[in-house]
Amino acid sequence: MKTYNSARVLLTVAGLLALGIFAPLAFGQAAQIKKIHMDARAKADSVMADSSLSDADKQAKVKEIHRSAMMEANKVLTPDQRAQLEKKMKEHQESKPPSNP
Questions:
Q1: pTM for this prediction
Q2: Dmax of the chain from CA atoms?
Q3: Rounded to 5 degrees, what are φ and ψ at 33?
């Protein structure tokens, strides 16, 4: 079963920024994305700590938090930055070995 680590919730934008792979952001953009990342991480941590949820429920909720955060972050990016992010995400997916279901 695949589990989600809340630290990886926004790996796509925040992780690429941290690794220096993503184009520089304007100061306002960086602050907005950092807030989105921190809010999503707090939500995911809360979900993961909720003992009333099954692993499948936790996975689904964290996945939804990730999707929502990515949509918010994409609104902050310029069209060129979004294109670059999509390209990097595709390259990352293609470089991963096939997963076992």
A1: 0.69
A2: 42
A3: -70, -35
